Structures are given as structure tokens and as C-alpha cells.
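Quick one, probably user error.
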């Protein structure tokens, strides 16, 4: 029996290390729009932004492979030592980003090395979460597992908040040129003491009692990957965990926190300091609700809370993001109503991964310009004799010429920046808090749900893969896909269709096929 003091020590030690690991991972995510101009070729803003988001996504895409590698080790060797290794890999990769030369210094070597470091971070994170969640759950009594593991669920948001604060302090206390030159590196160098603290804390931990007993009884899985994904019914539960829980949870998480951040910065043109403050305040106010919904899941169940968060988010995202535009940049909203924009072209492409191989047509460049301006437009059939014809109200522009496009915007009254004096700060903050509450609903109970879904001998492997596919692929790809969808469709809200469709899919599959796990007694049922 684990006493209350040991239970608290396990929660604190696991959570602190995991906060630092999320801090490391999300530094790049927050700076992705800024890094577009540092590590990628100049010339096309949306192309560089998509390349930065693709590098951001690379860390997410590789997370399931980290789940397989470290999940297997965790089920064979132990929970403690596995997530000790993951934090060393994560911390070292982050520190190295802080010393990486930019594109201006070493050319294409810069994005290549950056991608390699992001891949290392993704592999490490793929092994981290499952270990921390499993470790805490296996130290928790059955009637408090949702609450105890919800502390682990706060760590991603707290890590993001910590990254926001450190970056904000650096940017607010430096000239823009200084921050762009070397100041951004401080946030990455800050990982050096965090890494040392994390290693020290995790060296003090003891192995999970359930795993220790499995090891003593000789009941560990000899082939956890095979037993997890190639044996029925466990492979069925892995698929249901992904499609009926973590996919929807992942897109709700990344929409409510990261996509909201990028939407305000990129499309609504609010300066970074008030944007970081808005997001930061919403995270501070919303974070305790992870614990609220974790505790509530111990009483009424995990499934209904997760699925309620998915469907409520899907139904309300369009009005919430339109509300952000209305309250943060009303001038942009009025401009769009008064100035209809059309683009007539035929040679338009859908770009996701941008590189030297990409061919950007005049249409692509025009749509790039409009998307970066936060403007929605209507695509119409091509006109003979011109590769692209763009109309801003009564102004007609034939062909692509950036100077003429800028002049057309200026002459039609386009607001290039959100006016802080016109922002309704209270209502904007309220909308962001609502979206963070959705995040806490879907994410607070998910660790307990995944732990309870799988037996101890393959738990680390089994729960890590659907979690990291749901969050790393479905969720992590959201900024990249949504940005590409906006550029293609010509509507700044069009990217929301991606999280909405995924969240609805999870609600339907979860409702029909996923069973409740709250009453599983993991301490009593693992050793029969």
C-alpha cells in the first residue's frame, strides 16, 4: 500500500520533469512563425511559414515512433529508467537548437540540422508521456487515478505557459534586432538548468510497484510490440483509443491553445506581447480545470467528459474564432465586409510541405499575400490573357506584383495591424478561456482512461502509440494543415474544418464503440 506522502512525492517528481520536457518541446512551436525568417530561405512568406510549420510538425510526426521505441523499453526494463533517458535526449536536443547557426550563416544545413533536432525531441516526447502517466497511475489508488494523473495532464499546458513567459520576457526586454540576432537563444539555453534539475529528481524515484511485482513474478511481456498491436483484443483497443478518444482530444488541445495563438498573431495581426498575455492568462485560469475534470472523471467516468468536450468544441469553433476577429481586430472585420476580394486564376496549387522542389505560381503568390494579410477572398474562374486577376472592391490587378498589391490594400483602407485601443480585451479573453476549458475536458481524464484500457505488462507500449498518433499526428499537424487549407480556400476560418471533422469522428466512434474504464481495478487484476 502506498501512503499519501509517497503518492504526493511521485506526482510532484513526475510532473516537474514532464513540465520541463513540454517546455523544451513547445519552445520551437511558439517561435515557429518567427523561425520562418531565420532558418528557411527568404522570398515567400507563406512558403517560409509552411516550411517552419512543417519542421514543427516533424517533431509531432515522429512521436509515435518514440512511443514504440521507448514504450517497448518501458515494458521490458522499467518505467523509471525509460523516462529518465527520454528527458536527457529532449534536454540535449533543445540546448543544441540554442547554438544552431541560421540559414544566413550555413544555408540549407540550418533547416536540415533543425529538423534532425526536432526529430530527436519528438522521439523523446514519444517515450516521456506514457512513462509519466503510467508511473503516476500505478502509484495511485483506483478511486483517485483520474485526479492523480490529471496533474500529469496539466504539464503540457504549464510547459507551454512557461515557454510563453520566458520568450515574452526576452522579447519585451530586448530590441527586436537583438532578439532576432541572438536573444531568442536564451530560452533554449534556459533548458540547461532545467535538464540538470530533472535528471536529479528522476534519479531519486523508485520503480513502479506494479512493474516491480510483474518483474518479480516473471509476468512481463517478452514482446510488448507484438502483444500490443498484433494480438486481439488489445489491437482493437489501441485502434478504438486512437479514433474514439485521442484523435479528437488532440485536435481540441491544439486548436484551443496553439492554433488560437497562431490565428491571433498571423491573421488578426495583434502584436506578440498582448497575444502572449491573452493566451497566457487563459492558460493560468484554465489549468486548474484539468484537476476538476480529472477528479470528476473518478466519479462519473472518463468517456462522457472526453466526448462532451469534443462535440461541444466542434459545434462552437466557428462562432468562437469569428468572435476573436470581432473583438480583437474589428477594423479587419469591417474592411472585409466593405471590400470584397476575388482571385481569378487556374494555376493554383495546394502546398503543405514547402522546399526547393516547390513551384509557386502567380496564383500561389497572390493567395500567399492575401493569407498573410488575414484576408478572406473568393476564387473565381480564370480570365483569358492573365495568369491571375485580383480585385479589391473596384480595383483590378492583373498578374502578380507585390508592390501593387500593397498599394491596393492601402488605398482601400486595409488595417495592417490590430489597434489595441479597439480590442475588447475582456471578451477576447473569455473566448480563449472557453477554448482552454474544452482542452481540460478532453485532456484531463485521458491519461487515466488510457492506463485503464490496457494490462500492465504492455501498458507503456499500448497507451503511448494511440496517444502520440492522436496528439502528434492528428493534433500536431493542425497548424500546418489549417494554414495550407486557409491559403487554398481563401477563408481564414476554413482551417477549422479540420479539427471539427476529427472531433466529430471521435465523438461518433467513442459513443458507439468505446467502453467506460473508470471501474477497472488495475492493482487487483494484473497478476491473476
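Nope, works fine. Designed sequence:
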Amino acid at each position: 500500500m502506498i501512503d499519501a506522502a509517497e503518492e504526493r512525492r511521485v506526482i510532484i517528481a513526475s510532473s516537474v520533469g514532464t513540465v520541463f520536457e513540454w517546455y523544451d518541446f513547445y519552445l520551437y512551436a511558439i517561435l515557429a512563425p518567427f523561425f520562418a525568417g531565420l532558418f528557411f530561405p527568404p522570398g515567400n512568406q507563406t512558403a517560409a511559414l509552411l516550411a517552419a510549420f512543417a519542421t514543427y510538425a516533424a517533431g509531432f510526426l515522429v512521436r509515435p515512433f518514440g512511443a514504440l521505441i521507448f514504450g517497448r523499453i518501458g515494458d521490458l526494463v522499467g518505467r523509471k529508467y525509460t523516462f529518465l533517458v527520454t528527458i536527457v535526449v529532449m534536454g540535449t536536443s533543445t540546448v543544441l537548437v540554442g547554438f544552431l547557426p541560421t540559414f544566413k550563416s550555413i544555408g540549407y544545413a540550418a533547416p536540415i540540422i533543425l529538423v534532425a533536432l526536432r526529430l530527436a525531441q519528438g522521439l523523446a516526447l514519444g517515450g516521456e508521456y506514457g512513462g509519466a502517466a503510467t508511473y503516476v497511475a500505478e502509484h495511485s489508488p483506483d478511486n483517485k487515478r483520474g485526479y492523480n494523473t490529471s496533474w500529469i495532464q496539466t504539464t503540457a499546458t504549464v510547459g507551454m505557459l512557461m515557454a510563453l513567459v520566458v520568450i515574452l520576457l526576452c522579447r519585451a526586454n530586448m530590441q527586436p534586432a537583438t532578439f532576432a540576432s541572438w536573444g531568442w537563444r536564451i530560452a533554449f539555453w534556459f533548458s540547461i538548468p532545467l535538464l540538470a534539475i530533472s535528471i536529479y529528481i528522476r534519479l531519486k524515484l523508485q520503480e513502479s510497484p506494479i512493474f516491480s511485482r510483474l518483474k518479480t513474478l516473471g509476468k512481463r511481456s517478452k514482446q510488448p510490440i507484438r502483444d500490443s498491436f498484433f494480438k486481439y483484443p488489445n489491437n482493437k483497443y489501441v485502434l478504438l483509443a486512437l479514433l474514439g478518444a485521442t484523435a479528437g482530444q488532440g485536435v481540441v488541445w491544439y486548436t484551443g491553445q496553439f492554433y488560437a495563438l497562431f490565428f491571433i498573431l498571423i491573421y488578426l495581426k495583434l502584436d506578440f506581447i498582448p497575444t502572449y498575455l491573452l493566451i497566457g492568462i487563459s492558460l493560468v485560469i484554465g489549468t486548474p480545470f484539468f484537476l476538476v475534470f480529472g477528479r470528476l472523471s473518478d466519479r462519473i467516468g472518463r468517456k462522457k467528459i472526453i466526448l462532451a468536450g469534443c462535440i461541444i468544441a466542434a459545434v462552437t469553433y466557428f462562432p468562437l474564432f469569428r468572435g476573436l476577429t470581432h473583438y480583437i481586430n474589428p477594423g479587419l472585420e469591417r474592411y472585409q465586409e466593405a471590400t470584397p476580394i476575388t482571385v481569378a486564376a487556374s494555376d493554383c496549387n495546394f502546398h503543405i510541405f514547402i522546399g526547393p522542389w516547390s513551384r509557386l505560381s502567380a496564383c500561389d503568390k497572390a493567395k500567399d499575400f492575401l493569407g498573410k494579410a488575414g484576408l478572406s477572398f473568393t476564387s473565381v474562374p480564370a480570365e483569358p490573357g492573365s495568369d491571375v486577376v485580383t480585385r479589391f472592391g473596384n480595383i483590378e490587378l492583373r498578374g502578380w506584383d507585390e508592390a501593387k498589391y500593397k498599394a491596393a490594400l492601402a488605398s482601400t483602407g486595409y488595417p495592417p495591424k490590430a489597434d489595441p485601443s479597439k480590442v475588447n480585451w475582456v471578451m477576447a479573453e473569455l473566448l480563449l478561456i472557453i477554448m482552454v476549458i474544452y482542452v481540460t475536458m478532453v485532456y484531463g481524464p485521458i491519461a487515466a482512461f488510457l492506463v485503464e484500457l490496457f494490462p500492465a505488462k504492455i501498458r507503456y507500449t499500448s497507451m503511448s502509440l494511440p496517444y502520440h498518433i492522436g496528439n502528434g499526428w492528428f493534433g500536431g499537424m493542425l497548424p500546418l494543415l489549417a494554414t495550407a487549407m486557409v491559403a487554398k480556400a481563401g477563408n481564414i476560418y476554413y482551417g477549422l474544418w479540420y479539427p471539427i471533422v476529427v472531433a466529430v469522428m471521435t465523438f461518433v466512434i467513442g459513443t458507439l464503440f468505446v467502453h467506460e474504464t473508470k471501474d477497472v481495478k488495475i492493482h487487483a487484476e494484473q497478476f491473476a
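The chain has two domains: 4-329+421-525, 339-411.
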